[in-house]
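Exam revision sheet. Question 4 asks you to relate a sequence to its structure. Input first:
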Amino acid sequence: TLLLLDNRIEGNRYALHFPVVVVVDGGGIIVKGNVLRTAGNNGAELAICVHAVDVKNGGYFDVENNAMSAVVGVWFVKMATVSTAGLLRVADCTFIGKKYFFDPALVYLSNSLILQGGAQWRVEGNNVSAASVLSISHPQQKIRLSGSGTTVVLAHNRQVEGSAVFAKLLPPNTILASPARFVVGCNLHEEGKEVSYDGVFPEGVELFRCGTCNEDAACYLPGTESVDRSSCSCSCKGGWHGASCLPFEVPDTVVPPVAERAVDGDTSCVVNQTLTSLTLNMWKTHHCFLGVTFSGVGAVLTFSLNSMPLHLPINITLTGCTFLYGAVLQFVGGAEAAESSGVLIRVGRTVMRSSVVVFALALPQHCDIAVTEVDAVQLSVVDIPDTTSRTLSVLLLRNVVLAASSLLVSNVNAHSLRYGGFGLYSVGTLTLVGGSSLYARYCSFDGYEHLFYVYRLSVRNHSVFALLNNMMSSGTSFLYQHQEFSVSNHSVLRVVGNSGSVSYATYNDGLWTVEQSGWLDWR
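Answer key, structure tokens:
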């Protein structure tokens, strides 16, 4: 058995990739309890990519209780075959879909799926946000079921946040030969209503409603001794496991205790030095730089926030510093917003010459960030470390998530000698949740095409995104939104009081959604 348990994995295109044919013959693969995210933005990001799979002779491939964020959760690229009592299962996962060139889906088939000889495929108990549960790429691809005991279960899934269809397939996509069974039921929308199955499945598919007990959906019948229909519970045969009587049991993971590590509590500052390279000790609570010059492409000041002692308050202060000729100041989070006791970041009275400040990934919860009083001149593009990206921007956000946090950009005076750049630039998805805020105010930009370029924006759960009282001498727009943006659940997007000779105050080049008491304030 191959176990992949309780990991946090982030990849550019794939979080987990099986690039060759996977044959599971009597053994098993279990992918459980992981956080799987993708950071790329080319439109084909996959949490799990399976090139081809052949599960047989009682083998199993189980994807269970994972948190996934990508365009597709599990993509079967080539033929998938499950035979002779094999089991293929995607269950109890949380999936957040990223929409690019095609609609996201939890499970995506770009070739046929063949089930025979008592095999089972189960997609059950998943929570899917802004995506379909199941999608098939082309009409010629089929789900083929044959043989006694062969069963497909598509049940107890829930869709939230969005208008995606439940399953993107048509009746001809499914070929069902009795006595094989295809069971569908109790799949819900966010508001608790059952989804519509009209025009999706062919005759012969067994539909059931919530509140009824369907034995195939409730139990893995090959391992079930009996079913109590009053409680819809399963009694397992000897050697079968869990509430559903599955053929495997996930072993408890044993995490050895972490040795207590002393935190460096030094609060002194680095003062009036010129640095061309440096290495930081992340396991300390205070970082202070006063009047320091960071010069050249080797002067990369990286704060890996999730490697810091977040159980204690963190304070990072840079005052009166200068960044020259490719120097980079960057703050990097992780795959999801980590718990913290508070992270205070202050960058003030800063001079920048062909340099950039970068925030990347999901920052810890309860961050209080301010970048203020910046004098910037961009003479040439700046290379971003560990990426292929280059930028003319003063501030770059890479797939940033703010959770119960704030980011203030204020009193930035920036001039670019190369037209076509973006003063503030967000690549990937910028997400504000949990009462977070991002304010850009009282800034002045000259020589830029857009004041703030946002590739994709999601503002929800009482959060605020605001551009206030900024000035551009010329350019195309104050706010350029390349793909869709959404404002929901009592959140606000404000573009107010900005001035300058621009073609558009806001330019929206994609779908935008405002719902659940969300607000737009453009004036």
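Marking note for examiners. Confidence is low (pLDDT under 50) at residues 254-258.
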